[in-house]
Each structure stands twice: as C-alpha cells, then as structure tokens.
Queue: 4 jobs
Job 1
Amino acid sequence: MATDIAESQNQALYIPLRPGVYAPLPTFFDDDQEIDYETYKIHLLNLATKGMEIISFDISHISNLIQSFEERTSLIRFIRATLDEAGLQSTPIVAGVGGLSTRETIQLSQAAAEAGADAGMVILPAYYAASLNTDSEQVIQYYIDICAGSPIPLLLYNFPSNAGGQDMSSEVISAVIKQAPNLCGVKLTCGGSIGKLIRLNAATSEDSAINSSRKFPFLLLDGLIADLTPWMKCGGHGTVSGLPNFAPCASMRLWDLLNLSSPSNDEVQEAARIQAILSRADAAAVPGGIRAMKYALNKIHGYGKAPRKPLLPLKEAEGEEFMAALNEMFQLERDIESSNGHPEVHGCT
C-alpha cells in the first residue's frame, strides 16, 4: 500500500503530454566531441518559446550519439533546469529510453524519471529483430513489461527503418494498448501510418476503458509533419517531427490553422500551402538524417555541424544540395517570422 501511495504521489509530479507539435532535438558537440550545452540551451529555448508542446530527445543506444549513462541523465537535468528557469515549467520532456533488453529499458526509464523526464519513448530493439519477428507475442509482452516497470508513462514508437525492419501491425499495437495502462500513446513513423491511425483511433473510441483506465489522455502521434493535415482529420493528436528544428514558426502556424474550429477560406488555403511546402521539405529531410540536420542548423544558426563519431559531418556538396531542397521552407519560415498579421503564431511575430 505504501508503495502504491508513493508511486501515485510521484506520478502527480509528471507533466502530462498534450496534443501538439513535438520537437525531437539533436545533441550538439564541441571539437572534442563533448556535449555543447551552451548551443543546446539556445536551440532548446528557441523551439520551446515558440510553442512546441514537447521537447523530445533520445537517450537510448539507438541514437549512437550519447554514449555514457552520466551524459544521458545530466542532459535531462539540464533540459528541465533550462525550461524551468525560462518560466516553461509546464513544458514536458520525453526521453528515448529504449534499451537492448526489457531489463535495460526499465532501468533507463527509471533513470530518466529521476532526472526529470515526464515520459519515455521506446522503439523495438533492432539487434533482436529477426527473433522478435518470429513471434509477435514477444513484442506485446515487451511493451507490457516495460510499461509495468516504468515510473513514467511510455510512448510506443513504431519506426521500422531504425528497428531492424520491425513494423508493428495495428493489431499488435492495439493489444499493447489494452494490456498496458501506463502506455500514454503511440508514434507511427512507418508505411501505411494513416491506415493504422484510423484502425487505432477506432479501437480507442470503441473501448472507453482505454482512456478511463489512464490518468492521462491517450495520444496518437504522427512521425512526419508531411501528412499532418490528413492525420488530424483522421483523429490524430499531433506530430513528432524533426522539421520544426528548421521551421518552428511555420510548423506552429500550420498547427494553429488545423485547430481552428471554423477556419475561413483564406485560412484553409493558407494551411494547404504551408502543408504542401512542409511536405516537400520533409521528403528531403528524412533521408538526410542527423548529418543533414546538423549541416542545416550550422548554416542557419551557426551551431556545430559535427555529429558524434563514427558519423562524420556532411560533405559540402551534399549539404548545399540539401539546403537547396529546403529553400522554399526557409523562405516560408522567414515570411512567417516577419509577419505582423498573425498574432496567434506562437512567439513568431
């Protein structure tokens, strides 16, 4: 009983996740490959003050960017302190806590919670992809176990490209949702995501216990801002996209327009235009990965462009090609930043 009360009290300290634009931040490094906290703070506040509902980053082995346990937890503490000092105490932090085993994932979630994370995000272990693919019950049990052992709510992250090709079906995800009350949502970065969204939205709508059994709203999140408009129309709750790192104002403007209860014809057309531009940019940004993101942020803001080795900085020719592909989006961002006609744009006027 005492344990249950303690867990309940601790849970109340966590900031619940909300529908919105979720921004996964890259980690910046200096010339000695150490974390560049000064640059990280600048970028963190640049996004958080523009209305990003969440600041998400990966502390798991999947990222191959932050190696030591101490770095992982110290970065969470740094983010929480930075947000609190800026008056952003209600901005939640999600940490990637997917490990190579059930035991390790639970340990990572516990460490993230102690450091100040409000939720965790878990992708399937890529190393065991072949074995896990032979029996989906293993996948279901994995999420049931880690949700039961985690002191913070967890998001299920379906991203086949970074999980050894493992692509969870809507049936498997539905089974996890029903059996893991500490699961607070799913993020789908996979083929056929709209179809999965429709099926999962129907499942959660038809089973009232899914939300009534939780202390937080269950979220269905897109992994790409490229299809945010149809995602929202099909019952989704937002996106976790890397693109807001480049275009936070445009991303938030699209979010605001999509959430208008009675948009005017001009607003509908504006949303369609922004969505088209961001979709074209996303098509170029996703294949570029972290190396391309670092290159672009270096050109835009002067941040260090080097990822942590073994990854190397993008070559100039590749980088310039990437920047050219995003030029339309950069111009859109500049236009929205300089506009005085949209006071509802978060922090961008």
Job 2
Amino acid sequence: MSQPVLPRDTIAAIATAIVPQQGSIGVVRLSGEKAVTMAKTLFHAPGKQVWDSHRILYGYIRNPETKELVDEALLLIMLSPRSYTREDLVEFHCHGGIIPVQQVLNLCLEAGARLAQPGEFTLRAFLNGRLDLTQAESISEIVGARSPLAAKVALAGLQGKLAHPIHQLRATCLDILAEVEARIDFEDDLPPLDEGEICNSIEMVLKQVKSILATADKGELLRSGLKVAIVGRPNVGKSSLLNAWSQSDRAIVTELPGTTRDVVESQLIVGGIPVTILDTAGIRETVDTVEKIGVQRSRHAAASADLVLLTIDAQAGWTPDDAEIYEQVKHRPLILVINKIDLASGNNIKSLPQIDKIVKTAAAKNRGIHSLEQAILNIIETDNLSAADIDIAINQRQAAALTRAKTALQQVQQTIDEELPLDFWTIDLRSAIQALGEITGEDVTESVLDRIFSRFCIGK
C-alpha cells in the first residue's frame, strides 16, 4: 500500500467558528517549519517578552509592508515536538468577528503560508505520529457531538480506548502469522505447530472483533440521532406536545385546525441520544393550496422518520380519520399518543388497532412527557441500541474494516478445518491484519486519509 508523504510546507487557517457579534475571540493557526518566522514578521511584542515555547505573548499584528495596525492580539507559541501537529505551531488570538480574523489570515498567506485543507492540522498530527487514526476521527466526533454522551464516547476514543484493543488484536494476528510462516520456512528446525493453540487464539481474536463490531449501531445512533415525527389529524395537540417536550414555544398553538402549515423541528436529548422532533401539519383532505403542501410534507416526514408518534384526541376518541392515517404509518416504528387526556370524560378510546406502545399525555399541562420519553427509550432498548454504559462506539469506516477482519478470520478457521496447507492460512491472516491496520492507520492509503479528513473543518 502507498505510504502518505510527510508534510513540509507551512499551513494556515482560521481555527474558530466566526459569526458576526457572536464570538469575542477568533484564532488563526499556523503550523510548519516557518510558522515562527512568519509570526515574527507579523507580530510585534512590546517590552522584553521572550519568544519561547508554550508562552503567550501580548502585542500587535501589523502589515509588514505598510506597517498598518491590523489588531491587538495574543500570540501562543508551541514548538516542535510539543504541539498539536508535532511541528512548530503558533496561534494568533484576535478579536472575534470575520474582518480582523480574515485580515490576519490574509497576512499569513501573503507571508508564504498555504491555506490548510479540511482537517490538515489533524492529518499532520497523525502523519507525525502524535495520533493514530481512531484518535483523529474521535477529534472530529468531539467537534460534531450532539449530546454529552456522544462527546463522552468520542473522548474515550481520543484517549485510545478503541485503538488499544485493536492494536492488541492486530499484534496477536501478527504473532500467529509469524508462527505459521516460521513453520513454512524452517519446518525441519522447529517443533510442530500447535494447531489447537492457534485455533484458540484465532477464536479469541474473532470473539473480540465481533464484540467491538456490535457497537456500530450504537455509534450511529449517537452520531446521527433519532428522527421522530409527530403526526395526526389537525388540532389533536401535536404542536402543544412539541412545545411541552422542548419546553419552548417552537410551534404556534391555536384552537383553529390547520394552524401548522410546515414541518417544525426541535432538537432534544433523550437518555443521552440526540433526537430531532418533527411537528407536522395535520393530515387531512383540503383544498387550501398551502395546507395541501404542508400535508404532503407531513406524509414525507412520517415516511422518513425513525419513529412515528401517531397523536389522537382523547375527547374525540379513535376516529375514521385516525384509522386512515394509521394505515399510512403502521409500517413504521410507532407509538400511539393519546393526548388531551385531562379533557376526556370516561373511556372514549375504543376500537383501537393492535398497537404495542401507547402513551397518554396532557401536553397543554405538561403531563406524560416523561412516560413518552421512556417509551421511546424502551423501543431503542428492544432494538438493542441502548446508549447506556457505552465505552466505545465505532463508526461506519471502522465497522467496514472490522467486518473484513471478521470474514478473513472466519476463512482462516475454515481453512484449518479443511486441513489445507499452511500457505493458505497466511493469505487470510494477512487480510485480517491489513483490515485491523486500516482502523488505526498502521496500514492505510492516501485515498483513505483523503476521505476521512475531507469531512473535518478547515481549521482542525
């Protein structure tokens, strides 16, 4: 496999999100062998401040040609190898806002730096041996975490809790391969191969590979979250349910049916899992052009959601219109929400279809929300996607590599069972070793790195 080339030039990028009037500090980052030299041409540190590693200097950024003052700033110096990239690295901590930060970046580029590619700072950290590939991916996941639990799992990856077992499994496979190849090359000089021990080692590796692979669904749930659509007839309390759940007035609530004309989204955390709630327009036949578009979007939201909350009015009971909507969504994971239970007299809810999950709420009085969340978590538990007690959670790339490793190890077992020559054992052992090496970056191509780091933000 081709080996990535170690970087030589100096790169620059804005390392903080820049939103007008939203950030007090903006950071411009330089990394490479000329980073400090470039900083000295742009930054004036008054007095006798020392340009040593891991010091913060106070001063002014000036245009080296016009001497025009650009900003008052701090300069952070981190010399190789004690930096994020293991290269000389400096950061200009400027006033927030796009104008001063962009001006400083332009000065860096004019001084000879190259604009960094997405994720290039972290790529250099990987290429220079500061991080392995699982840790680099964990950094991206920390930045994009949508819940505290997702951030916790990503931080565990950064600390090596995925890399460590993968390294051990790969080392075991390498040991097995060495034993087998030694018997091929020096059969007359070594004792016979202990096939029983080899089989036990392969089974142990395979068991651990399957165990780690089982976290893929949990990882996807933490990263992508759950999309939940609230659907039902007009005026059954869908918007009130969204407002009570999100503890905000995200949706307009009136006594008039058809108030909601478009899909309204709200982001929540339920049991550590990010949940996107979609409040949809009431589904009914209508001649109103705008409402008709809203109804179409409601049906599309229900069809694409991971979970549907079919909401009905406890006062009206189960109606033919409810039954018609149920026919449209019954193929999706479903919870029946009986709302306005506080206004119902007696038991109006009759002739219900066979729905396993039923929750009663009084959204206007903020009742039943906890039961609804628990019902959602129960569905997740049933699908073996519980986010509780997660230590590691692999991503899709890692899952694909582990699947190849599992297949290769199973093929080794079959080869042994069929009593094929030792040369055949080594073919699949090498495949398993390569797949495990792709996870940590010990065996990876530039094209794989390009795909991984292209998803990073530019300044990371």
Job 3
Amino acid sequence: MSEVFATTGTIAAIATAVVPQQGSVGIVRVSGSQAMALAQTLFHAPGRQVWESHQILYGYIRHPQTQQLVDEALLLIMKAPRSYTREDVVEFHCHGGIMAVQQVLQLCLENGARLAQPGEFTLRAFLNGRLDLTQAEGIADLVGARSPQAAQTALAGLQGKLAHPIRQLRANCLDILAEIEARIDFEEDLPPLDDKVIISEIEKIAAEISRLLATKDKGELLRTGLKVAIVGRPNVGKSSLLNAWSQSDRAIVTDLPGTTRDVVESQLVVGGIPVQVLDTAGIRETTDQVEKIGVERSRRAANAADLVLLTIDALAGWTEGDREIYEQVQHRPLILVINKIDLVEEGESKNLQSKIPNIKSKIVTAAAQNQGIDALETAILEIVKTGELQAADMDLAINQRQAAALTQAKISLEQVQATIAQQLPLDFWTIDLRGAIQALGEITGEEVTESVLDKIFSKFCIGK
C-alpha cells in the first residue's frame, strides 16, 4: 500500500464530531493488535466487571503514569474478527465536547497507537474482507447523506445490492472467457465454439451494464442535490415564495421593488431529494450600482441552476420584462410560477394563461397565503421523474467511479463483438474480454490498485 495508507500497527481516532457545548458523548476508536492492551492501560473498571468481547464496561480513564483522572467513561470491547475492521477494536465513550475526547486520544497516541489516516478504519475492513469497495463507498455516502432517500440508496449499496449484480456480470464474463480459452488449449477435443451464443451472452451482459449506468444521474442528484433558482422581475413575490416554501423568513419581503440585492439560499428536501433554493434579485435594467451587481448575480445563478422557477405577477400579467427574462432562461429546465393568483378573478387568470408562451410546466401560487407549494413540489418531482433532470426510478445509484468502470467494461464488450464480427482468431477475443473483467472487478475491489484505494478512502473522515 502507499504511504497514505500504511495499514500496520494500532490506530486511534475521534469517531464523533467535536463541537464545543454540542453532543453529550464523544467516542475515541482504537483498532489493531494492541487495542486491548492499550485499553487495559488507560481504563480502570471498578468491581468485578468482565473484560470480554462485546461487553460494555463502566469506569475511569486515568493517565497511566500520574493516575490523574481524565474522564468517567464507558469502554466497548469488540475482539477480532467480530468487529468493524476484523481486528481487535475498543471504543472509549467519553463526555462530549472538545477536551475529554482530545485528552483521551492523546493518551492513546502516547501509549502505542498512531493517528488513523482518513478512512483507514474502513480501509482495514476492506482489506480484511469484511467489506467490498461498493459497500465502503456506501458507508461514505450514508455518512454524507442529505436526505432520507439518499440514505436509503447508500444503505442499498452497503447491503450489497450493487455488488451482487456486478459480481454476477463478472462471473458471466469469466464463464465466456473459460469457454474461449478451453477452445484455444483443447481445440481438437471440444466441439466448435458457437459464435451466436457468445454474442448473445455478451449482449445480455452489456444490457445489464446499461441498466446500471442509467442510475448514475440519480446518484449524482441524491449526493449533490438539486439547485433551484427563483428568478423574475422585481416585486413578483420571489422572496415570499422562498419563505412560504422553506417555512421561514429567510428573505426580506416588502412592497418595494429591488429589496433583494443578493442571492439568498435555503436548504430543503423535496421527495427525498436535497434542494438548494436560490432567491435571486429581481432582473431588470437599473442605474443603482448595488442592484446592478445583484441582477448580474441573478443571471449567473439562473445559468448555473439545475432548474429555474420563472416567477411572474398574476396581477400584472405577462409583461415585456417577463418575456425578456424567459428568453434568457428558456434553455434551462423551467417551471413557470404564476404568483399572487389570489389577487385576480378566475376569468382574468384564464385570460392571463392564454397569453403566456407554450411553457410545458406551469403552476399557480399565492405565496403570501402559503398556497400552491404542494403543486410546486409535485411539478419539480414530475420533471425529475420524466428524466429532464436525469434521474432514474431505481433502488440503486452508482457514483462517478463506478460509472467510469462500467463504461469501460461496456466498451470492452463492444470491442469483443467487433472482433468476433471480423472473424479474428480466438486469442484476440480474450484481450478485450479480460479488459471487461478487470473493469468490473475494480468496482467491487476484486481487482484494484493502490491509486484507486487512495482516491476512495482519502475522502473519508478520519474516524471512519
């Protein structure tokens, strides 16, 4: 392994967030052959408590030389192989905050442990066969999940729902390779290879790879979230829409146009998808230098957003200013929000909508009255469902690394098919078939390089 992951010795790290006056419990995790000895050096368990695996002891953490009391704590013991890393693991469950856990960690480091590298606990779990790479990445996704749906997708990966089909695809490729190599080595003793059967099997594998690749965009959507920009002329109710949607007073609302001078953000979850909502300054021509900067930021936010909510004032109708903004954002996925609908009569509303360009997704709201938010969220999810924002309705969602390996496997299989079509010798068939097998193996870790491991685990937090 590389120097980044020198996976020898006993390691220690704080496994919980360390925030002043936040959190009642802090955990210091230790893994390795000296974990038990270190725990027995630092932890004093009064009475006749039994030091056995998967037991929790109550006691005190003391400095081994001075016997100074450091903390009153619990000690969790997990002996190999029944632990996260399949090594001996102990956890000191201390009081939360900063000082207690940092002092305990320092004692661990002074008495034989070294500070764990980012992701090293999970790396050891992988190297010791407890997890494959898809499960390890599922853990990272679960820790970083920003919505219930993202957490469920991460759990699916952690439970092996991605690893199983990948392993099956790789096994199928290995079966085909064995058939081909058998003909190369024992051509005279075996019947001729049926090209059509081989091509059919390869096509089935490629189709399954394509199905898995279709989940990549959903994975990105769940991991990074959806960026939504509310744009429109000044005073059409953009800030009121944000406040009603987020059920807060994030944006200042007045009757004066140009109140919002900068982009105001709010974090929401819609249908399990994290959503970053950007309330932008009203877009119009202005001589006010500060407002002009805000307008320019609004335009940049609209161009960078995954989805634009073009908001208009139902009372003012479809104006020349609305048309100009629409021309600037119509290339983006778009929902037209007709706000202040409570201020117009039903007949006027129908007349207004007849004048609006042919925008596929339109909703009406009365943001100041908290009306129309459900319809807005339904419209957003409908755009996601139809694929305009590239999301697939599946349990699994692959990441960029996995997608790159699957793409390489698919290309290799296509090259095998081309080789067969050109009637080249069987030796040539095996070259790209081995490439597909290697690419699939990289996903689960059956074939992996140090650089891949470095890239994956360096993104983990230190205590994981």
Job 4
Amino acid sequence: MSVEPGPSVTLEDVARVAGVSRATASRVVRGDHGVSEERARAVRSAVSSLGYVPNRAARSLVTRRTDTVALVVPEPDQRIFSDPFFAVTVQAVSQALEDTDIQLVMAFADRAGSHQRLRSFLHDGHVDGAIVASHHQIPGQIETFMRAPIPVVFIGRPAQSTSSLAWVDVDNREGGRIVARRLLERGSRAPAIITGTLDMVAAQDRLEGFSQEMETHGIVPRVIHGSFTQDSGARAGVELTPLIRDGSVDAVFASSDLMALGAMGVWGREGIRVPEDVAVVSFDDLEAGALADPALTSVTNPVDRMGWEAARMLRERLAGGGVEGPVLLPAKLVPRVSG
C-alpha cells in the first residue's frame, strides 16, 4: 500500500504502511522504548517514505511539553541591539540546542515593570524552560523567574542565590582585583572606575573587587557611574577629562569595553593620550576593543562559553537530571597597549 507524501499524511497512514497498530507507531515516533527492533525499523521506514511530520501541537497535549525554551532578556530594546553581549549569547544558546528538537524563542522586558507580562509567559505553559540572559535587582523581577514552575537558568549570578538555583557567570569580583593589580603594577596611585549599572550583580562585583584590592594599598578609587553602554562611557569620559588633566586621575578601570571605547573617543578629541596621560583597562575583551587604537587591555568575559553552559544546564534539567551547582568561570587579563 502506498500513500502520497505531504502534509496530509497521518500517523494512521504510517501505522498501515508499517503493518503495526497506531499505538505502536506512536511509541516509535515519540522515541519510547518497548517496541521490537523489527517493528521500530518498519515504522521508521514508513515515516521516511511517507514524509510524515509529527504534529507538534498534538504531541504536546500528550507529553505536556512544548519543545520550546525561552531566552529572556529583561533589557530595553536599544541595549539589546547595540550590545554585542546579547548577539553572542543568542548565537551560543542556539548552537547548543542545534542537535535537539527544541525551538528557541526570545522574550523581552524593559526595566519599567514588564516582569508582570513575563510572569504570564513563564507560568502558563508556553515554554518548557528559560534562560535569563541579563537581570536587574528590580522589585518583583527576580522573584518572577525564581517562582516559575519550569526550569530556569541564569547567565549572571543572581543576588538571591540558593543551592538549587542554576547559574553561570565569570568571576567578576576577581576580575576587578585583576584590573587593580594591573594598574598598581603600572604605577597608578590615583585610579578611577567607571561602573556598570549598579542594580546588576556583575557591576557590583567588579566595583567591589577593584575597590578592595586598591584599598589594601591605601588607595580609595574615584567612582564614576555608568551603565555598560558606550554613551555612558562617553559621559564619564567628559566628567573625567579635567581630572586627568590636573593629575587627580592617572588610570581608569572601565567596567565594560563599550564604556572604555566611549571614554577614549572623548579623550582622543580632547588631546588626552592613552596610555601616556591615562592608563585604561576594561572588561569583556570584545573584538572592537582589540581593534581599537590603542588596543584595549581587557579582562575576558567568555559570553559564548556562558551561553553554551547555560543551555547545557537547562537541557539536563529538562531531561530530569540532578541539580547541578553554579558554574563560575575564571577571569583572565588580556594585556594590550591601553593599560
């Protein structure tokens, strides 16, 4: 018996061609065990010859799974599309899911309370799990993720961390210490730091590590507030310009490459030389920083590895694996010309 291939092919057609019951065909298509190899081979052959495609919606009614996971990015749109962190994260997570049937969708939220919308998305069966790629200490936001009835993995250490919480991050606090030691070795005694957004743990940890290491040498760094964006780096550069000129600041730790590039653009127009007038060390080790003039000395932020690890942890949890502890990746300095 033959059946024309196409979208109208049903599981009953597969069962008839394979000479098995519909229940047996269904078990083989779902990947269940308990079917003889002979019958399984017949079903697979029928699926191939007929071009049968399982109905995802119907299957989800049986399995209560959507075969979909969300990459949640609670950031304003303008940052998502301007910061390389997010593009690399999407690519890494997508690649880590390539050998599965899992579909990746993106869910966005700004910082003005859209976690209310996310609560419905994460709690109402739309996805099987989620990876949160950036999060802030905004009332209600982290609780929305932590209370979701699905596995959730964080890229970035949450402030309210528990032993059962899954997250992956780079050692931001040690990264701050590494920068401080680098600038001290270069002779800096009047450093400044351009912070990231301080409602984010990564920014807090980089500031804390840097300040603690400097304070062990009796130095209190000047703190300039930024928000991980190139524009905020430029504004910090304007604020620091007179301090560099009068010698009040001799080195700057920019908590992201984008902020360093923004500040250096201002200083270039103002005739301030890097590293002759001010040494600069940053964080992220982006390609743009490596290609800058002068090239940025920067601490690695292995975003691709973090995305891959987060996807791996989520896959293990979806498969019913044991609870794995957090993954903390080492921070390493990449020395270049700027500092």
